[in-house]
Structure formats: structure tokens, C-alpha cells
Amino acid sequence: MATNESKTMNNVLVGRKNLCILAYDQGFEHGPTEFDEKNVDPEYILNIAREGGFDAVILHEGVAARYWQKDRDVPLVIKLNGKTAFRAGEEPFSPQLCTVAKAHTLGASAVGYTIYVGSGREAEMMREFSKIEDEAHDLGMAVIAWMYPRGASVAGRENEKEVIAYAARLGLEMNADFVKIPSAKTYEDMQWIVKAAGRTGVLVQGGKQRDNEMFLEDMKIAMRSGASGVAVGRNVWKNADPIGLSKSLIAVVRNEHV
Amino acid sequence: MATNESKTMNNVLVGRKNLCILAYDQGFEHGPTEFDEKNVDPEYILNIAREGGFDAVILHEGVAARYWQKDRDVPLVIKLNGKTAFRAGEEPFSPQLCTVAKAHTLGASAVGYTIYVGSGREAEMMREFSKIEDEAHDLGMAVIAWMYPRGASVAGRENEKEVIAYAARLGLEMNADFVKIPSAKTYEDMQWIVKAAGRTGVLVQGGKQRDNEMFLEDMKIAMRSGASGVAVGRNVWKNADPIGLSKSLIAVVRNEHV
Amino acid sequence: MATNESKTMNNVLVGRKNLCILAYDQGFEHGPTEFDEKNVDPEYILNIAREGGFDAVILHEGVAARYWQKDRDVPLVIKLNGKTAFRAGEEPFSPQLCTVAKAHTLGASAVGYTIYVGSGREAEMMREFSKIEDEAHDLGMAVIAWMYPRGASVAGRENEKEVIAYAARLGLEMNADFVKIPSAKTYEDMQWIVKAAGRTGVLVQGGKQRDNEMFLEDMKIAMRSGASGVAVGRNVWKNADPIGLSKSLIAVVRNEHV
Amino acid sequence: MATNESKTMNNVLVGRKNLCILAYDQGFEHGPTEFDEKNVDPEYILNIAREGGFDAVILHEGVAARYWQKDRDVPLVIKLNGKTAFRAGEEPFSPQLCTVAKAHTLGASAVGYTIYVGSGREAEMMREFSKIEDEAHDLGMAVIAWMYPRGASVAGRENEKEVIAYAARLGLEMNADFVKIPSAKTYEDMQWIVKAAGRTGVLVQGGKQRDNEMFLEDMKIAMRSGASGVAVGRNVWKNADPIGLSKSLIAVVRNEHV
Amino acid sequence: MATNESKTMNNVLVGRKNLCILAYDQGFEHGPTEFDEKNVDPEYILNIAREGGFDAVILHEGVAARYWQKDRDVPLVIKLNGKTAFRAGEEPFSPQLCTVAKAHTLGASAVGYTIYVGSGREAEMMREFSKIEDEAHDLGMAVIAWMYPRGASVAGRENEKEVIAYAARLGLEMNADFVKIPSAKTYEDMQWIVKAAGRTGVLVQGGKQRDNEMFLEDMKIAMRSGASGVAVGRNVWKNADPIGLSKSLIAVVRNEHV
Q1: Interface of E with D in 187-246 (CB under 8 A)
Q2: Could you say which of C118, C124, C171 has the minimum Cβ distance to residue B86?
Q3: Are chains A and C in contact at 3+ CB pairs closer than 8 Å?
Q4: Inter-chain touch B126–A31, beta carbons under 8 Å
Q5: Across all residues in chain A, what is the average pLDDT?
């Protein structure tokens, strides 16, 4: 057995191959323009997570602290850093805004952190991530790295096979348990990306809202190519029947994983 | 019960829905040009706070340390950061100038911190705020985030519904007990902003001095739309009859809250 | 009694209304061009301080450590930060170069720190000052803030009433025991500045060397307007009869304070 | 005996004169474009290291944590910092992404750190290296400094004798046990470089893949000129017969060292 | 007795008036281009220091750790910061690369630190020096400040009387035991510089290699003007008869000091 697996041995997420996670960090990243009267309310989301059968829900600290309940809700992933949509023109940077210790106190099973790979400030985020990774693993929490290609150096190439594969590989090199990445264009690309990530699991993001069938087909392809799961948000909680769609999605993820 | 509510359970401000707070941080933010021979003296302000029946008074560290008395004055909010009016052309930044521990020693019930949302330096302020939030909650103090849209990226949009709603939502995502924000243009806008802030209370700022009736009408609308209270300064202590106006204001706030 | 007065209750400078302090930080700030064969020697200065009857002497760490003697010399103020004259074109910044703990070990009764109010780097200095203020008060030392308007944003306005009043007020807001500021142009301006500073004492700087009578007249006006004292250097130790002038100055300060 | 030799006295690498180390940090530095279906898998590399008879293998933290096994694999060197290939146009900087303590916990015998000598950010890397050097030696680990000339100030001169000799000498001045450097152009240049490094051992890098004989000849020359060993990667694990080549290489290194 | 003299009372260098120190930090500052086959080897230098009768030798950490021996060699000064010759066009900055604690562990009697007076980054170096000064004095070590005028603000004035006198005075103000400075142009200039430094001793640097007689004459003038000693390098260890020259130099220093 390799060295650092022991501390997270009993973690509810580590080592899983068919994860379905509900993301609700858009209030920070995009602002309430994403929301309507229903999904602006975190209770609405937590209900989808429970009733839809998700394995975990992703929240920022404040929403977790004020809404999530350990004895009622699905396992918690706290997103530790965040970036507003205001500073769009700059090389992207997302500062840590919640400590690992606080996430642990709040009951989180995992922490998430975004690294904008290719950004002029990627070094700062990598450095910060490396500290988080140590602290979280020491507390038995899983570590999920949002590895998103962004910034002038990768502009227009954010969805290219080699760029995503590099982003995913960096997650392995930095000891993430999972990387959350955009979907690649083809099944073959996706297979190579999963291979590059090695023993670090790949979670495919849901992305912008689209047609139910297209969305489910994309997730199916990702799972067949070896991904360890999906982390989706808007496609589910903007849906007219979020719980119905959740159940279809989970069936896909459970059945298709390699 | 959600996780972090326990430590501030007995706090005099947390959970309140009809707060009336007197702000006197203008000596730092604007300088004595705001003052006359009477209101330049913090004793004059503390007297208004007491006699007018305010729930709390907002001071910077030095004024708190040298004037405020626990056994005599209304509960204390210490504003932890500050920015002078000299550097007007820059992307706004307001550094922390008082520790949470010092605020606690001085007897404060809450701490305040300004984040200039949209500023080129918002990441620095958010990071600093996140530490303050942890420290203050650990000591049982309430946390009030001044969420003020400022800087080139939001220039001219500081009072737009979506901009203020985003600012308010960020306060929830970062676990503030209250956000202090500018008034929106309409009652409907204000309702959406309050909804976006969720379980984080909304305190509406008073803003520039204006006619008593206009001022009270604005505060009335804010309270009806679901705000948790008001934090006002110049409209009160520049008034010829500050205690009279205070009493009218407090009546509005107490009666109109939803 | 307000909260933070207790720790400095027995401090030899705190609360004083008629202070006469001898400044000798020019070796750092201006360099030896200010000196001649006599006053280049710190012993010469310490002798003036003793024989002239000053309440305290201002030194940088090294001069204090190598010349000042507790059992022989007048009380010590250590200037904690310093800026050379070399970088004249830049927005002024003066970094801390001596810790509060070291100043305490060396026997200082007070620490001094310059904030260039209006400088592009004022936030850094304010932040550093705020830590010093806590540490010094915890050790029972007085805190003197040199509040000097400087930098492009206040160029040409360094001696204006509102600019100096703002600088002085910031000293109160940040909990300095004393602010050291330039003289204002008129008696009325000076009165407003003293009022703006509230319970923070105002020390007027001596400035460039000038005629004895003019100098003493300026100090007299400052004291009558409510200043808590003077902090002078070159006018005294560049004088042909420094001890004679010191005695005249001290008589003025003792007699004229309000 | 000189002072700091004692703590690393029993280290498996320190003091060795004929080291053959397999580098596999390219997943971070270059991305998976360097890899094919076989060598993308760290298990494939670790097998070459074992079967080929290498003295150590160089990995980043994540690959070490998830693949390397103390009781099975050759001694571990953890590369502590890393730089992606995305930011090619900038003055190069490589931030620390794994602590010395973590490397020690993972079972490493040595740590590696790259300093881009001549870079506009060399001071930052030197400072970070100096802390790492202390920590690693305190824990009995060997310290290998990748001393790579890079950046505008040395552009086009990266392989010049004096530039490499300076880089190697800096490794001695900063107390590295080994420097990893590019090959110089001639045998005589290499001799001077080894002399400049003094008691700090010189490890020659393998560089880009080339013909087996050319590669082995380069390594032979390096060893004869006094180098303490080689640290090679792509030439070996991109080779069709990596274990065969490894054995030839090791024979060269063992026989040719001075 | 002034306050901080007690801890360094028994230091082998503090208070000395006729010091002869051999500098060998050029491997870092200039690179091996300064060296030949003999003096590239630190053993050659340590032998000159011993046989030539020097009071101390200046080394960077790595050379000290790997060559210097307490029971064999002359007292050790560790140069804590360093700057390579690569970044010549920039405002000079030299980061700390060895801790005071490490220098103490290695057996050093003193630490050295360069401040480029007048540099755009002088504030950073002064701040770092001030911490080093505290730490070193606490451990009973002497503190030598290399006070070198450099950077655009003093370009062309590096050897002017007032510039060097200011640099030397800053060393006193910051509590250095010694300043190492360039020679001034005249005996009178040198006298003023020594006076400006007060109780901080002045060590004159040797500078570029020149004719034996010219070199010794320069050192003689410096000592007569009141300097506390010399710190020389290339003039000695590039000399054909370094031990002969050392003995002549030491005779000059011992005889000529005031």
C-alpha cells in the first residue's frame, strides 16, 4: 500500500468510482443571476441532494454553516476558495476563504479548491493548494482539485485534449484524490485524460444547462472512458424536474462506470 | 440547527430582525470635514446612541478605547478596517487595523469589515475577512460585512439590483451574520437582494444626509422588503434634532420589519 | 474610565499636557548633512536633553542602544520606523526597523512610528502601526504617531487645515496616545485640529531651523490652541546656545498650555 | 570534519561519487505530451528503476504518495517545487509545492528544488531553497539543487562554461549536497565546473532523448571530468529497451567515476 | 554602560579597533570568473587566513559548513545574504539565505548582511537586517552591515563623502557593531565618515585588485582616519604571495589604528 492512503482509508468519497456530486458554489462564482425564486434558497438544493440520491453536495462555508445539517443532509464538500465574476478581464485568481480546520469543524468529508491552470497566478494557487492538501489529508478528508485551464496562455485551448490531460496530471502530481475537469471533446480524448490522472480520480463537470438527453449522454461517455464520477449543478437544479433528472443521472453513473 | 449558530447564540445582535445601529466611522473614512463643533466629539455621538435608543454604535478602535464605556453605552460594533479619502483614484482597498482579539477586549459585541466588491483588490479583502469571521465567531461576536460595490469593474453600476444582490449573496457565502449594503432603487429589487442573502441579515445603510421624511420613507421601504435593520450615521448626527429623529427612525424599524 | 487607559496609567508621558520632547532621528531621516562636528555626536544631544530639562528624547534603536543610559538620561522614545532621504521621488514608505519588544528592553517609555498620510503606501504603514499600537500598550508604553501628510495625493496641501486635521483624527481613530504633526497656518486652524484629535494629544513639530523668537512664538501659539506639547530637534541642537533656548522653550510650554 | 556533515552521515546518497538517478518529474514540468501509453503509468517507471538498478528515483509528491513503496522501490527523491510549461514567456519561477516534512513522511531520502539561475525571480527561489536546505539536513535528508540557467539575463548563454560554473558554485555556497546541471560543451569546461562546485557533488542531467551511443558517450565524459553521477529521465524511459540501456548506463557511471 | 553591550561583551570581534578580516564571498557575488585553479578551492583561502594571521574569515553558509573547522580555522563571519551578478540592470536586492541560528550552529562569531543604500529595495533589506540584528545580538554574535550605496538614486555618487557618511550613519542608527563600506576619496572624508558612524566601528573594504603598495597605502590612510579595521579579499588571495602581503597588511592595521 502506498504511503498516504491510510489516513483517508475510511473517507466516504476516497476510492469511489461512481460518484454523483451536486455543486452549488455558483452563488459565489456567478452571483444570483444564475438563480430564480426557488433555487436561490439553499434549502431547495439540499432537498434535491437528499431526494435525488447524490453522494455529496458542494457548498461554500457560509451556506454550509447556515443550512447544511450533518444528521439530515448528504455528505458535504466545502469549496475553500472562490472568485467573483467581477474581475473577468484579469488573469484568474481564486483565494482561499475557508480554512481546512473550519471545513472539518463544519462536518465536511472533503474540501475543494480551484487551480486556474495556465493563469498568470497559477503558482500562487498551486502553493496554496499544496498546504490545503496536507492539512485535509491529515484530518482524513478527501481533496478535490478543480483543475480549470484559464488565462491568456491557454485562451481558446481550454477544451483541448492535451491541455485537459495536463491539468488532470497536475492533480495527480500534487496529490489530489480527485480532479474536477471540463469534459473533453471525444471519448478517446477522455480516455487519455483519465490515464494521465492515474490513481487520482476524474470527476467531470456538468457545465452550462442543456437538453436532458444531451446532458445524460455526455455523462455516460465520461463514465465509460473511466471517469470516477460527475459533479453537476445548473443542469440539475435549474431543471424543471430536478429530482427526476437526478435519478436518471445517478442510474447512468452507477451503470456506466468501468 | 446548523453548525455555526451555537457560539453566537447569546449574542445581543445575532438573529435580530429590527436593528437600528448608529455608525460613526466617518472620522476615518471621510475625515473631520464631515464634522462640526458638536459632532466632532465622540461623547456627543455616544449620547445620541444612548438617548435615541439605538441597538448598537459603530466605532473605530481608538474612539472605542478612549470614549466608549461598557457600563454606560449601547453595545459596541468595532469597525476593523478603514480607508482614508486620500487615495480616491485607486482600486479601493481597506486594510485591517484592529484585531478581533482587541475588539473583544474592548467589549465589542460585533466586528465590522468592508469588502469593496468588484475592486481589483477584492481578493485580498475577502481573504482577510474570512480570517476575521472565524476569529470573531469563535469569540461569540457577530460579524457584519460592509459589502460595497466599488472599483472600475462596477463603475456606474453600484446601485444596480444584480450588483447589490451579488454583494449581499457573497456575504452569505462567506458566513457573515449581517451585510451592510446600499439601498436598491426599488422595493422589488430590495426584496430580491434580501432573498439572495438568505439567512444572512441585511442592514441598509443611511447614506448621505437628506430630508427627514425622505430618509424615513427609504428606511421604511427597506424594512418592509425584509431587511433586518438599518445602520445610519450622518442623517442622524448631522440632524438638528438627532434624538427626535432617532426615535422616529426606531419606531419605523420596529413596526415595519416583516 | 474608558477601556484601554489602564495599562498605561503610570506611563511618564501618557496624559501629559505640557510635553517638551527633543527629537534626534535626523541621522536616519536626513543623514549627517544635518550635523556638524558637535551635534554629530549623540552624547552632545543627550547632554542638551538633560541640562535643558526635556521630558524625553527621541532616538533610533542603535543610538539608544549605544548611548542612552537609563540611570542618567531623560526618558526615551524609540522611533521604530525610518526612511532615508535617497528615495525622494517615490510615494513615501517607512518600514518598521525595531520591534516594540526591543524598544521595551532598551528602556523606552514610548515608541514612535511615522505614517505618511495620503501616500500610495499609507495602508501598509497603518497596518504596521496598528500592530505596534497593540504591542506597546500591552507593555505599558505610550504610542506616538508621526502623522505626516505626504505623497502625490496631498502634494501642495501638506499644511492645510483639513489635511492636518484629518491626519490628527486618524491618530485618534487608530488609538495613538499622541500625534506628532506639522504646525497649521493659523491659531484657528490649530484649534480645530486639536479638537479633531479629541483625547489623543497633539504634539507640534519644530520643523526647519529659524530665528529663536519666531520659533518660540510658533510654539506659544500651538500650546495656547490646546496642543499637548512640542517635539523639536534642529531648532534646538543646531542652536549656538541650545541649553539656553531649551529653557526658554520649556517655560513657554509649561506656561501656555490650556 | 566540517560542521554540517554529521546529520546526513548515514544518508544513502550523501558522499556518493557514482550515482545513477532516474528522473520522472516530467508529468509536472512538461505534461503528458512527453508520455505514451506505457510510460504515462508511474508503475512502468518504478519497475525500470528497480530492474535497471538505479540508485534513486525522482518523483513529485502525488506520484510518490500513490505509487512508491518503501519496501519495494529504490530510494526516493521528492522534487519539492514545480513549474508548468504554460507560462513559457515569463521570467521562470517554480514554487515549493511539498514540504520537507511531508517528503520525510513519505519516506524520501532526498529532496530536490529547482533554482532558475539568472531569472528575474531567482532571489525568491534562493530564499525558499535556503529554508528547505536547513529543514532537510535537520531530518538527515540529502539536498539536490537543480541549478538551471534561465531567463532573459542568460538567454543564449545557458550552456556556457562560466554560466554553468557559476550556477554550480552557487549550489556549494548555499550548501546543497548535489547540484543537478546541464552538460557543458567540452570535457575541459566540465572539469572547471566540477572544481567550482567543490565539495558539492555534480549530477549531470540527461536532457532530450537521443541516440543510445551519443547519450552514453556524454555521460562517460561527464563522469571522467569528476561528476558525482547522472540524473536521467526521457533517454531511459522513452527508450525501447529501457532496462537494457539502464544497465549500460550504470556500468559507465560505476566505471568512469574518478 | 549602554544597554545592548552586555550580550556581546565577550565576542571576539566586538569593540576591536584593529581588525583584519579576509573576505571570500565572491563565489556568490561575482561567480568563479574571479577564481583561478588555486583560489577556487576554499581550503586555499582558509590556509591564507590562518597563516596570514587574519582575525576572521567571511564565508557563505555552504562553504562554511563544508570547509571551515572550529578547532583549526580563524573565527568565522557568515555572510547571510547574497546577490548574483546576473541581475545587473535592476535596483539591487540581496535576500537572506542563511538564518542567524544556522550561522550560530556553524560556529560563527559574527554575521554579515548587505544593505544596498539608495536602492529601490533598500526598505526590504533594512527590515530584514533589523530582525537579523536582534537575533544575532541575542546569541552573542557581532553584526556587520555591508552598507553599499547602489541603485539609480545614487548612481555616480557611490564614493562621495556625504553618501558614504550617510550609509555609515545608518549602520549606527540600526545598531550594527560594524559597517563595511567603500573607501572615501580623501583622508578628511574618511574622518567625517568615521565620526558619523559614532560607536559603530568602520571596516574599509579592499575593493578591486591593485598594486601592493597602493593597496597598503589606502589601508594605512583608512586606519589613521579612525577606521576599526579592514575587510579585504581579492587583493590578498589573487596575490602571488598572499601570506606575505597579509603579514604586511596586518602590520599596517595594527600599527596605524588611532
Answers
A1: none
A2: C118
A3: no
A4: no
A5: 95
Task: Label residue D67 by pLDDT band (50, 70, 90).
Answer: very high
Are the C-beta atoms of residues E96 and E126 closer than 8 Å to each other? no
Residue A55 to residue C51: CA distance in whole angstroms: 81
pLDDT, position B2: 54
Reported ipTM: the value is 0.96
Q: Do B66 and C5 touch (CB under 8 A)?
A: yes
pLDDT of residue A185: 86
Hey, which residues 117-136 in chain B have their CB within 8 Å of chain A? Answer: 117-118, 120, 122-124, 126-127, 129-130, 134
- The model's pTM is 0.96
Contacting residues of E for C88, CB less than 8 Å apart: 153
Q: What's the pLDDT tens digit per position in A41-65?
A: 999 999 999 999 999 999 999 999 9
Q: What is the dihedral of CA C182, C185, C188, C191, to 10 degrees?
A: 0
Rounded distance between C-alpha atoms, residue E65 and residue E60, angstroms: 9
d(CA E17, CA E229): 6
Smallest Cβ distance to E62: which of D153, D173, D196?
D173
A163, closest residue in chain D (CA to CA): D31
| pLDDT reported for residue C1 | 44
**DSSP 8-state code for residue E19:** E
User: Of A29, A34, A51, which is closest to residue A243 (Cα–Cα)?
Assistant: A51
CA–CA dist C157, D19 (Å, integer): 69
Contact across the interface for A166 and D32, Cβ inside 8 Å: yes
Number of C to E CB contacts under 8 A, please give it: 112
Q: E166: helix, coil or strand?
A: helix
DSSP assignment string, B55-78: SEEEE-HHHHHHH--TTTSPPEEE
Identify residue D50 by its one-letter amino acid code.
R
Sign of CA dihedral C112, C116, C118, C124: negative
CA atoms of E173 and A61, how far apart (whole Å) = 48
- Is residue D125 within a helix (H) or strand (E), and if so which, with residue range? helix D122-138
Q: Report the residue count for chain E.
A: 258
Q: Which of D117, D127, D130, D147 to mutate to test the interface with E (most CBs of E within 10 A)?
A: D130
Measure CB to CB from residue E65 to each of D4, D124, D171 and give the nearest one: D4
In this structure, which amino acid lies at residue B124? E
Q: Does C102 touch chain E (CB under 8 A)?
A: yes
| Segment A148-188, tens digit of pLDDT | 999 999 999 999 999 999 999 999 999 999 999 998 889 99
- From the CB of residue A208, how many other CB atoms can be counted at a distance below 10 Å? 8
